[in-house]
Prior knowledge:
Blueprint: H1 7-16, H2 46-53, E1 62-63, E2 84-89, H3 91-97, H4 104-109, E3 114-118, E4 126-128, H5 145-148, E5 149-150, E6 153-154, E7 165-173, H6 174-177, E8 188-189, H7 191-201, E9 210-214, H8 224-228, E10 233-234, H9 236-244, E11 249-252, H10 271-279, E12 283-285, H11 290-295, E13 299-304, E14 314-316, E15 320-323
Parallel strand pairs: 7-9, 8-10, 9-11, 11-12
Antiparallel strand pairs: 1-15, 2-3, 4-12, 4-14, 5-6, 7-13, 13-15
Helix pairs in contact: 9-10
Amino acid sequence: xxxxxxPLVLATLMATSPxxxxxxxxxxxxxxxxxxxxxxxxxxxxxxxxxxxxRISSGxxxxxSVEFYVGMPSYYFLGQPRFQIWxxxxxxxxxxxxxxxxxxxxxxxxxxSGSAFSMYAxxxxxxxxxxxxxxxxxxxxxxxxxxxxxDRGWRKAGIEKFPPIIARGVLVDVARYKGVxxxxxxxxxxVEDIQGTLRAQNVVLEDGDVVMVRTGRMRWFKDxxxxxxNTPGLTRESANFLADRGAIVIGVDNISTDVWPAQExxxxxxxxxxxxxxxxxxxxxxxxxxxxxxDRVYQFAWLGAPLKLRGSDGAPMRPVAIPIR
Length: 325
């Protein structure tokens, strides 16, 4: 049984539907007002947080993040900088350089290490801000690039605007439902796949859910070529299906929410644009769902918050899941 569409969903659908089939699609208008920058995350309220936390049924936690390391999967061939980490201070280097002027004896007494790192904002387990993708020069709620995107990032809809996200989480284990370890290359997850998986798991989506979709690709994460080659993903129809049922975040266990290579057509709009710029639903990639899948935990309290990087269109995240009744 599927829940009815909420008034907010209906308002969003009306705002994002093109008047004529041949007109270019545009960014959606938020039902939360003209200054809204976080979209469906407005549904996270003190009452909704308390409601899900009261349902926690055990102290077991599931870490949904991948490790960040040199050589980890990334779209470096698109010009995106890869994850790098280096030593700024080492014990021996501090003795030799004496940067603090304390002398060799004191520097030898204290073992001091310090590192720095750099990476593309959409590396590893991360969440996309609504500014990440747009349509016709606008992002969600009509904010224009020429007005709000400067050299220091977005002045509207930056990732720093996202609140901590605590909500009911749902795992949609499509790979298990289809009877495979990993979905086939370039497989587009259909609405029927989502519906069938939910029925098999005896789970009904609720307004305000964080929905995590499993393809099985995460088991290949440490094999770059295999992990990144021709990824399966959500179709626009299945992503809209989840948004229609009230999803406030949609995450996947691969590097691209969209099917890759893209299923090109004359009016092709990627899932990224459909969710971020039309529906106001943040999306996540590289979410580690293997522990939840192994234990068949399909409903849980989902807790996570991105780094507050001012003006950024995304940020790393380390979400945690805790089983609920």
